[in-house]
C-alpha cells in the first residue's frame, strides 16, 4: 500500500531520515523499531504530510502522495496518531469522536439556518457511529467523560477510535504504548488486531515494547541513523546481530551471548 523510495529529511546538516526505502503491505500490521533518534517519527511525519521531504518519493496504492498536506491524506484514508494524544480535553469522549468526520452539514451557515433537519439526522447518525466505536473499544462507560480526564491509555484508545469514525485505509501509530499500563496496552493491541482482521485496516506501528511488537507485527522494520537497517519477522529481528548492536545495545548483546554460552 505504501512505498517509500530513497527518502531524505534534513534539518540543516542533520539527516534525520537518510535515504530510507521501505514498503508497507496492504492488510499488514508492520512494526517500526529503532533507537531514539533513529528517524522513526520523522519518517512518519513525512509520510503523513506533517513535514515536507528534502528528497525522495512516497506512494500510496501507486499514487504519488509526496508532500501532500495532512488534510489531503486524511481524505485518502491515511491517518496518523501521535505519541502524545491530541484530544479536545473539554469535550466528552463521544463528542471527540463525533468531531472527526469532515464536511459535516452543520459547518455551513446556510444549513444552520435552512436545513436543520439534515443537520439533526446527520448528528444522530454520528451519535450511533460513535457509540458503536466505543462499544468496539470496550470504553462505552466513558462516553460522557471529559476527554481531559482520561488516563494515558484511555486517550490512546480514543485516538484509535477517532480513526474508526472515517474510512481509514492505513493508520500510523506512534508509540501507542507510551505511558500505558499493561492491561490497557493489551486492550489496545486487541483492538488493533480486530480492526486489521475484521475491517481490513493496515497499520504501521512505532513502539519500543518488543513484546507488543512481537505479538502484533509482521514484518518488523528496523531503523538506525535515518536508514533502514533490517526487515523481517520479529523473532528473526531479535536474533539479528546488527539490530542487537544498534537497537538493543552492546550490553544486551553480550548478555545474550553469555546466556547462550551457559
Please give a structural write-up:
The protein has 262 residues and is an alpha/beta fold. It folds into 2 domains: 2-87 and 166-259, Rossmann fold (3-Layer(aba) Sandwich); 90-149, no CATH class. The chain is 42% helix and 22% strand. The protein has helices spanning 40-47, 70-75, 93-98, 109-114, 116-136, 152-164, 182-199, 210-216, 234-239, 241-248, 250-261; strands spanning 2-11, 14-24, 29-33, 55-60, 63-64, 78-80, 170-174, 202-206, 220-224, 227-232. The strands form 2 sheets. A 6-stranded mixed beta sheet has the order 6-7-8-3-9-10, with helices on both faces. Helix 6 packs parallel to helix 7 (182-199) and helix 10 (241-248) crosses helix 11 (250-261). The longest helix is centred in the middle third of the chain and has 21 residues, at 116-136. InterPro entries: AAA+_ATPase, ABC_AA/LPS_Transport, ABC_transporter-like_ATP-bd, ABC_transporter-like_CS, BCA_ABC_TP_C, P-loop_NTPase. GO terms for molecular function: ATP binding; ATP hydrolysis activity. One of its GO terms (cellular component) is plasma membrane. This is ABC transporter ATP-binding protein.
Amino acid at each position: 500500500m505504501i512505498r517509500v523510495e530513497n527518502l531524505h529529511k534534513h534539518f540543516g546538516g542533520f539527516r534525520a531520515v537518510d535515504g530510507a526505502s521501505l514498503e508497507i503491505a496492504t492488510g499488514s500490521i508492520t512494526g517500526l523499531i529503532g533507537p531514539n533518534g533513529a528517524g522513526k517519527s520523522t519518517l512518519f511525519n513525512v509520510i503523513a504530510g506533517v513535514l515536507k521531504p528534502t528528497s525522495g518519493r512516497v506512494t500510496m496504492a501507486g499514487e504519488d502522495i509526496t508532500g501532500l498536506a495532512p488534510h489531503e491524506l486524511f481524505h485518502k484514508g491515511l491517518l496518523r496518531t501521535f505519541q502524545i494524544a491530541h484530544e479536545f480535553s473539554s469535550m466528552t469522549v463521544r463528542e471527540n469522536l463525533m468531531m472527526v468526520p469532515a464536511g459535516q452539514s452543520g459547518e455551513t451557515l446556510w444549513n444552520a439556518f435552512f436545513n436543520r433537519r439534515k443537520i439533526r439526522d446527520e448528528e444522530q447518525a454520528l451519535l450511533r457511529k460513535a457509540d458503536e466505536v466505543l462499544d468496539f473499544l470496550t470504553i462505552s462507560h466513558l462516553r460522557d467523560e471529559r476527554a481531559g480526564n482520561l488516563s494515558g491509555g484511555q486517550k490512546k484508545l480514543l485516538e484509535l477510535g477517532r480513526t474508526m469514525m472515517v474510512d481509514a485505509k492505513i493508520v500510523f501509530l506512534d508509540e501507542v504504548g507510551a505511558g500505558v499500563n499493561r492491561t490497557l496496552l493489551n486492550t489496545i493491541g486487541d483492538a488493533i488486531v480486530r480492526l486489521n482482521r475484521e475491517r481490513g485496516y493496515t497499520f504501521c506501528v512505532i513502539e519500543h515494547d518488543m513484546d507488543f511488537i512481537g505479538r502484533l507485527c509482521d514484518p518488523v522494520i528496523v531503523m538506525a541513523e535515518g536508514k533502514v537497517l533490517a526487515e523481517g519477522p520479529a523473532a528473526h529481528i531479535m536474533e539479528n546481530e546488527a539490530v542487537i548492536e544498534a537497537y538493543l545495545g552492546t550490553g544486551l548483546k553480550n548478555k545474550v551471548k553469555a546466556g547462550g554460552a551457559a
